[in-house]
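Project channel, design review

CF: Before we commit to the Flavobacterium phragmitis constructs, I'd like one complete example in the thread so the newer folks can see what an input/output pair looks like. Taking Mannan endo-1,4-beta-mannosidase.
RD: sounds good, go ahead.
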Amino acid sequence: MKIITNKNVLLIVCLTAGHFLFAQIDKKATKETQNLYRNLKTISKTHILFGHQHALEYGHGWSNEPNRSDVKSVTGSHPAVVGIDFSDFSGRSDEQIRQAKETLRKNVIETYERGGVTTVSWHFNNPASEGGFYWKDGISKASMALIKPGGSHHDQYKEILKSIADFAHSVKAKNGTLAPMIFRPYHEFDGDWFWWGKSHTSREDFIAVWQFTVSYLKDTLGVHNFIYAFSPDNQFNSESEYLERYPGDNYVDMLGMDDYGDFGRDGKYDLATGLEKLIIFSDLAIKKKKLAAFTETGLESIPNEKWWTEVLLKTLKSQNLQLAYVLVWRNDSTSPTHYYAPFPGQLSEKDFVRFYEDPFTLFEKDLKNIYDREFKLE
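CF: and here is what came back for Mannan endo-1,4-beta-mannosidase:
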């Protein structure tokens, strides 16, 4: 059992409008989604949730095994935040889409019923050209201009969003409630590797697509179990650079960042710069009364034996950051080197257990009633 000191305090969220300042952009959000939003804000003031991408779908050397994750194999607990992806919801055959939805539906519902949190990335296959979600010279089209309102592929984009909405309406637990999800579209938009990247998309077109996406999902398609996250890569050094493609406070619930480069990628560490960037959007979220999270990071193959405590944890505990969660990338099922969380026998396993045992970090076993008005940490 993980021991958490000074945490056994009942945290009651006041739902009176005059007393609660951190309101979601979706005024019709389900009760559970509203509670999650508020409780994540409470958590971020004193702790941080740990997340892992594709944690339950597969891991190092395995796939599709019930109630298994590499994180659980090491610590005894699943991660508090589980990452999934809508990548197979378009650009696939109807049967492939159906199978992908069924797999993820089960994943999301089971995570919700255990008390964990789901976050959704979207490696969106280009709807107007071949090339998948990456930008491929000579193949990919700059399609944000084509899917925005008035664009040649706008109607097709609406159909894709309807498919996402259908999924959002389907993740219903045994008690009849819908599982909330943190939806993080068009991530790392300040880089050039995706077709929605900065050099392929004007600022105006990016903002137009983002605003339409959020409005269409919540106002037209009736999706009320999403929290909307905005997450560039680490290509910024100031608040104004961070906000360069920001679609506005009415279209974002959570501010984030994906940053591998400052945290050991290719053996290069610049922790001071990484921390400065975390401070920029953490402080901005406090000012804007939004959530903040370290939406992606990690060190492939984790060759640094003490990366978890000496690099990640030390950074996260610095400078009064208010981050709801930190998520590391996936553990590929077949690659011997593509993994970002430890598994039994991996070099950093013991240090990860120390990271898990630190009172600051929270995993799924530490959460109780995160979807309730009255939330407590145990």
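RD: helpful, thanks. The radius of gyration is 20 Å.
CF: The chain has one domain: 28-377.
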